[in-house]
């Protein structure tokens, strides 16, 4: 059986205030064309269909167009909600859409109710695990600790229990939206850490033949059977080096997996240019980037006059301007930036305790208290988002 694995469409998202709607529509057309060209048996969409819980009308219209085009192909589509989606909104009409071959899986309680397809070698059970916000689903799964690893493990236990009751030789595919250990993130993904921990081990998916993951925006292979498709479009300059694609997955009769990358159209290349203003304006090597979306990182010791206007004359698609002036190692701003670089909000808060109480770092009890505070804020935000 052949699947097309995609995720993280983020319909309605802009790129530094530039609308991506036309590029997203082009991707939908590319997706439909790939399904036809490669004789795909099912499409897997692993979450973050929308960019926010209440998407703009234009994004909803594009989503509706995408569903109609996929349904017209007569090829089943299995789609789960991600951490950017409102599960309730995305799941409206799921029963009716299922009759048209569009199978929405947004309810955590239904994670062990697969879409069952069949080929000449038997049945394939497709399990859709929507994004599981630990604070919201811990009661459903009966876990003591509200962590990503715990709730996802409990959900997978249900999947394996259902699979054990099916005919011998039934192959299994899981869709999930999570940060799996070994994955590489980018700047455009929303933080989902709980208790300072965001990732779950790949071993949580043991027992199934393929795990189609969403959340991380770079296409990557965690194991041969556990993969991220990545987003079809770049949504931050940290993705400038990504080659956006989908996975074409062939599942053999014995459960063996073969995967091929299908590359997505690029609306406009990205380039991050760094240097002093006069260097960026004069460097001949940068001529190749005049049609790219540009983030200019200026290193001038003092902020130059009207840099945006001057740079835009050479780079008409300049969308981001960052100031990182060259400083001496003795400059206090350098050491402060170094201390903050790569640190989480929780770690910065712990450092602040040591700053206001010199000579004494945060105690274990204080670190636990700060961790609970950050987790409670995240949980409150998740509840509010779900209620919107």
From TrEMBL:
CDD domains associated with the record: MPP_Mre11_N
Keyword Hydrolase: yes
GO molecular function: 3'-5' exonuclease activity; endonuclease activity
Top-level taxonomic group: Bacteria
Gene it is expressed from: sbcD
Family, per entry: Belongs to the SbcD family.
Pfam families from the UniProt entry: Metallophos (PF00149), SbcD_C (PF12320)
Residues of the Nuclease SbcCD subunit D C-terminal domain: 267-353
Assigned keywords, A-Z: DNA recombination, DNA replication, Endonuclease, Exonuclease, Hydrolase, Nuclease
Name assigned to this protein: Nuclease SbcCD subunit D
Alphabetized InterPro entries for the sequence: Calcineurin-like_PHP (IPR004843), DNA_Repair-Maintenance_Comp (IPR050535), Metallo-depent_PP-like (IPR029052), Mre11_N (IPR041796), SbcD (IPR004593), SbcD_C (IPR026843)
Function description: SbcCD cleaves DNA hairpin structures. These structures can inhibit DNA replication and are intermediates in certain DNA recombination reactions. The complex acts as a 3'->5' double strand exonuclease that can open hairpins. It also has a 5' single-strand endonuclease activity.
Keyword Nuclease: yes
Transmembrane segments: none
SUPFAM superfamilies in the cross-refs: Metallo-dependent phosphatases
Quaternary data: Heterodimer of SbcC and SbcD.
Species of origin: Streptomyces smaragdinus
Domain Calcineurin-like phosphoesterase, chain residue ranges per copy: 1-90
GO biological processes: DNA recombination; DNA replication
